Amino acid sequence: MSALPDRPAGDAQAAHARLFTPLRLGRALSLPNRLAVAPMTRVSATADGRATQQMADYYAAFAAGGFGLVITEGIYTDKAYAQGYLFQPGLADDAQRDAWRVVVDRVHAHGGRIVAQLMHAGALSQGNRHRSTTKGPSAVLPKGQQMVFYRGEGPYRMPEAMSEEDIAEAIEGYALAARRAQEAGFDGVEIHGANGYLLDQFLTAHTNRREDRYGGSLDNRLRLTGEVIRAVRREASEHFAVGVRCSQGKVNDFTHKWAGGEEDAARIFRTLGALPIDYLHTTEFEAWRPAFGEQGPSLAALAREHVPVPVLANGSLHDAMQADGLMARGEADFVSLGRGALTHPDWPERLRAGARLEAFDRGLLAPIADLENAARHREGRGRE
After folding, report:
1. How many whole angstroms separate alpha carbon 255 and alpha carbon 216?
2. CB 232, CB 240: distance < 8 Å
3. What is residue 4's predicted lDDT score, i.e. its pLDDT?
């Protein structure tokens, strides 16, 4: 991340005025600006999946720092096969729901909005206190190695193929988690259909070798995502925002591209856009780069062409010029920051004031990407 040189606050605010205009998602969720905190796994909940006071402080800092929308880390949805990481928070029971209320109230107290990202890890689960086995669309060994900074070790386990009953259980888990999210006071939910987790596993041909109605054609491979979105929408009130996140790359297959290129992208986005969602969240390593090859539109631009709802773009947009440029070109309606938000929870206020933005420090996520490690690392740097 390049540092932003100090300059008068008025100049900075004028240069990036687009980022500070309001935006409405769905019928009732109004955002004060176009800056969101991206979902980032922090593995800092209690062992039984309850959010903590430290997590409340962490999320509240983003709202206090000027982010219009905060998207939580992936939250597991059931006590079967959804959990992906040890110390991951859940919305799978009422105790977990009640713990989130403290977090939500803190964010709201600072004028922020917060949505819960609902996640089922599927075959990429590397730590589940409820099950010793994993399940996915097919019995296909995931590529790559488990992530050490989320307490994983060695290769992924061979998953079992999900039965129709397992699929129904997963759909119900998403729906009940959405209900609990609304009861906890969240402003909406984001369905995690990206980065190689369960819904993306069903979408991806090499991890989905099913021969039933959930496999084969692209439409069939998108079926589960549609069923989850509709189930979540049925549980939520009309004033509760529902978004979905999608990507090409995966946590264990970073360079993956959709085989059909722009044609596949058009079909995927048209299908998602016809579902009852209020926004669509795309993520790439660098959001402004062509989605396929050396030239052509970005993934966010393709989404915006084919969906009727606002598009949220993610990917190295802590560079304010890139974030503003993406919106100026009409490729996205708002942007989400990961590394920038971790570096500066008050990134929007710093940008507005023309203050310096420092480079991301990877020590915040190593050796374990939890909040305790980040606090120790910042404390150590403060003593230098």
Report:
1. 22
2. no
3. 45
> What parts of the chain have a pLDDT lower than 50?
1-8
Catalytic residue among 81, 174, 197, 214: 197
Is 156 marked active-site? no
Query: In b/e form, how buried is each residue of 121-139, taking b as 16+ CB within 10 angstroms?
Result: bbbbbbbbeeeeebbbbbe
The reported pLDDT for the residue numbered 12 is 56
In total, how many domains does the chain have?
1
Residues in the chain, overall count: 384
- pTM score, whole prediction: 0.95
What is the predicted pLDDT for the residue at 13? 59
> Which pLDDT score, from 0 to 100, does residue 144 have?
97
Q: Does residue 96 form part of some domain?
A: yes
What's the pLDDT at 118? 99
The CATH number assigned to the domain holding 336 equals: 3.20.20.70
Domain range enclosing 254: 9-383
Both tokens assigned to 298: 């970005």
In a domain? residue 1: no
Check residue 379 and give its pLDDT: 84
359, part of any domain: yes
- Partner residues linked to 246 by β-bridges: 282
Distances (CA, A) of 279 to 27, 77, 132, 312: 12, 21, 35, 7
Instruction: Give the per-residue pLDDT at 7.
Output: 46
The C-alpha atoms of residue 272 and residue 200 are separated, in whole angstroms, by: 13
Closest CA to 244 of 274, 285, 211: 274
Examine residue 18 and state whether it is found in any structural domain, yes or no: yes
DSSP 206-235: TT----STTSSSHHHHTHHHHHHHHHHHHH
Average pLDDT, the chain: 95
Nearest Cα to Cα of residue 323 among 309, 303, 337, 302 = 337
> CB count, 10 Å around CB of 259?
11
Tokens matching residue 101: 């209320």
**Cβ neighbours of residue 85 under 8 Å, at least 6 residues apart?**
41, 43, 121, 125, 126, 127, 150, 151, 152
